[in-house]
Amino acid sequence: MQGVHKGGCHCGAVVFEFDSPDNITVYRCNCSICRMTDYLHLIIPASAFRLKRGDPSTYSFNSHVAKHYFCPTCGIKSFYIPRSNPDGISVNLRCLDQSSFKQVEYAEFDGQNWEANGDLLAHLSSSEN
């Protein structure tokens, strides 16, 4: 079943909603930035995402393909455009109202070896998913 889910930053300055199935798989990545922020990825098509409030700041590094959006007030990164899915959005499960999901499964992703594994996530931003 598909539903509308809500999320945002700690202080409430950045708020968003998105369409997603009620049963989801989120990815734990071991790359340097995800490991340090304990980010849990739910990758969705960009067309399913709606920023409802806020003007987040951006950060990028290395290839500058990924665009990390964070609240300029509280500093929380609740979503970003991932390098693996430049046509999608990764929302952080830790920043979502998890009561709207029926089931959450966890999977590991080896982001430390991104060049060898990045294409394993490419299908997740497809609107056919």
Describe this structure in words.
This protein is mostly beta strands. The protein has one domain: Metal Binding Protein, Guanine Nucleotide Exchange Factor, Chain A, CATH 2.170.150.70. The chain is built from 2 helices and 10 strands. The strands form 2 sheets. The chain has a 7-stranded mixed sheet, with no helix packed on it. The chain has a 3-stranded antiparallel sheet with strand order 1-2-5, with no helix packed on it. The longest helix has 6 residues. The radius of gyration is 14 Å and the shape is globular. The mean pLDDT is 92.
Write the layout of secondary structure elements.
Layout: E1 2-8, E2 15-21, E3 23-29, H1 32-37, E4 40-45, E5 49-53, E6 57-59, E7 67-70, E8 79-81, E9 88-92, E10 103-109, H2 114-117
Parallel strand pairs: 3-10
Antiparallel strand pairs: 1-2, 2-5, 3-4, 4-9, 6-7, 7-8, 8-9
In short:
This protein is mainly beta and 129 residues long. Helix content is 8%, strand content 42%.
* Structural class determined from secondary elements: mainly beta
Would you report the number of β strands?
Answer: 10
Q: Which sequence of SSEs, written as H and E, runs from N to C? A: EEEHEEEEEEEH
Q: Whole-number average pLDDT? A: 92
Q: Enumerate how many helices there are, as a single number.
A: 2
Overall domain count: 1
Radius of gyration: 14 Å
CATH architecture grouping: Beta Complex
Major sheet attributes: 7 strands, mixed
N- and C-termini, Cα separation: 12 Å
CATH topology: Metal Binding Protein, Guanine Nucleotide Exchange Factor, Chain A
Return residue spans where pLDDT drops below 50 for at least 5 consecutive residues: none
